[in-house]
Amino acid sequence: MALLDLLGRRWTLRVLWELRGEPRGFRALQAACDRMSPTVLATRLGELRTAGLVATDDAGVNRLTPLGVQLMTALGPLNEYADTWAAALRAAD
């Protein structure tokens, strides 16, 4: 359940989502996660590094680790369900 606790923290999934396609430096990641304070981003990146989901290289570029990629793959069906759910809500309006 520790993973679910981590994923439930504000901005954690957004950071992972933004790193799914390409590695990003701190400022690029902050820009992609609009409205996130630098303090929160630094905290989330530290937590994700400790969890083994994100790595930061010597140049300060953040990327998903193999475990992070595996997590994003595992979350794929949830994303598909979210799309279906959102479409159903729009259709009901």
Automatic annotation (TrEMBL):
InterPro entries attached here? HTH_HxlR (IPR002577), WH-like_DNA-bd_sf (IPR036388), WH_DNA-bd_sf (IPR036390)
**Keyword list, A-Z:** DNA-binding, Transcription, Transcription regulation
Q: Which residues form the HTH hxlR-type domain?
A: 6-87
Kindly indicate whether the keyword Membrane belongs to this entry.
no
In terms of Gene3D superfamilies, this protein maps to: Winged helix-like DNA-binding domain superfamily/Winged helix DNA-binding domain
Q: What Pfam families does the record point to?
A: HxlR
Stated name of the protein: Transcriptional regulator, HxlR family
